[in-house]
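User: Zinc finger protein 706, Enhydra lutris kenyoni:
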Amino acid sequence: MLQVLFLDMARGQQKIQSQQKNAKKQAGQKKKQGHDQKAAAKAALIYTCTVCRTQMPDPKTFKQHFESKHPKTPLPPELADVQA
Ligand SMILES: [Zn+2]
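Assistant: Predicted structure for Zinc finger protein 706:
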């Protein structure tokens, strides 16, 4: 009788441990995904307009934006060579 009880406890303990392990694993995956999305978003929007702070994915878009929205503002030096 006692032995059976002990076995049940051991089994229950194992179950809890594996549940904790799974939860940890899932949390880790979630964290990793969040990080990847953040990194991807950061990589996709690397050009920030110096005038209005609009973010753009590439220098071409940035230059077109700059020329149409801020024609009176001198072009930033990093856009001078960009072919729009
Ligand atoms: Zn702008």
